Amino acid sequence: MDNSSGVGVLDKAALVLSALESGPATLAGLVGATGLARPTAHRLAVALEHHRMVARDMQGRFILGPRLAELAAAAGEDRLLATAGPVLTHLRDITGESAQLYRRQGDMRICVAAAERLSGLRDTVPVGSTLTMKAGSSAQILLAWEEPERLHRGLQGARFTATALSGVRRRGWAQSIGEREPGVASVSAPVRGPSNRVVAAVSVSGPIERLTRHPGRMHAQAVIDAAARLSEALRRSG
């Protein structure tokens, strides 16, 4: 093997993962693609399955496992956070409102970055805050582009409807007025990873007195632009 690291078992495991990059493979397919002996290919694939780096499809073929997606998401989050600070600060400065970045975590969403309004009445969401996926414009964004079954599950008990999410997909942004918290309005837009999947939501939020009952009219374009800058940063480093 040309790119040998000198650690044989890792080199062979890397061969197995690389072989699965092009799609599902039977054990015979793995042997053919890697050149490994059948018992070795089997032993490594099963060991990688134990660590969730390999999984099986409905036909029992080997496929890349969920752990790889989790690691990729973590790497993407690091890139996202490295870029988020200046983008959120700029968004806060041009809107005059607090700006946040949310990622989904299971049935909740977590604030992973924020730029607070410097004075006056603020809608403070500290970094690390865990909020509901059932209300708020960023929850709408993080749910709107999910596959149908997950979207349907997410709508159960939500303060917004399937029709509202259809509008979010059409417009490319979401707004909420007193949905998560009385008196607070927000506007959000999606951040997309290299595969175009929605990986985060950028938001501005503040009191309804300032954002009015049509906050999207005031701030949708600024939020969309901020989300586009973050999406572009992820594409460049993806």
Automatic annotation (TrEMBL):
InterPro entries per UniProt: GAF-like_dom_sf (IPR029016), HTH_MetabolicPath_Reg (IPR050707), Tscrpt_reg_IclR_C (IPR014757), Tscrpt_reg_IclR_N (IPR005471), WH-like_DNA-bd_sf (IPR036388), WH_DNA-bd_sf (IPR036390)
Residue ranges constituting the IclR-ED domain according to the UniProt record: 67-236
HTH iclR-type domain mapped to chain residues: 7-66
Cross-referenced Pfam families: HTH_IclR, IclR_C
A single MF term (Gene Ontology): DNA binding
PROSITE patterns the UniProt entry points to: HTH_ICLR (PS51077), ICLR_ED (PS51078)
UniProt entry keywords in alphabetical sequence: DNA-binding, Transcription, Transcription regulation
GO biological process: negative regulation of DNA-templated transcription
PANTHER family, alphabetized: HELIX-TURN-HELIX TRANSCRIPTIONAL REGULATOR, ICLR FAMILY, TRANSCRIPTIONAL REGULATORY PROTEIN
Protein name per its UniProtKB record: IclR family transcriptional regulator
